[in-house]
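Bumping with the actual sequence this time:
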Amino acid sequence: MERIVLASQSPRRKQLLEWAEIPFDVIVKDTDESYPDGLHTEDIPVFIARNKALAVKNELSHDRVILAADTVVVLDDEIIGKPEDREDAIEILTRLEGRVHQVITGVVILKDDKEIVFSNTTEVTFNPLSYDDIRYYIDKYQPYDKAGAYAIQEWIGVVGIGSIHGDFYNVMGLPVSRVVQELHKLI
């Protein structure tokens, strides 16, 4: 497979591409992660991912395959972003504990004038968590760069998640199996 460009600094996305043995370079450009009012929830991460991909494409001197993704956590039709601080992270996990939420990752793959766009949704159910468990996780793992204030592959996922329906790796930030299938169609 030809070397692609990953338009993301996410260590989890890098790890997933490495596990899939996809050669890649990381090129990231600062982009606005806001979105227009009225977008359907599943379209929001796609909108943001497209902006990331186009920002990188505009900086490249020759055409390469560009992969961009964005992940959002949704509870009761509300997007739960990255926590602003410790108290916000505690509040977010307190809202998620004992409940079902959705993790939606939008993916955009560009090559020349071709564009592949999709989103993937996984339902995640947290077990009830104690306040001490939530504080322990926040203080030890400091998930301030993670939508929903957690990472499924960390302690909170191992002990706190009762079930998932859908792609586990989507919750980590990239539905890598689908990405590989789409790359094979494109390359």
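The tokens above came from a reply further down the thread. Strands lie at 4-6, 24-26, 66-75, 78-80, 100-111, 114-126, 161-165.
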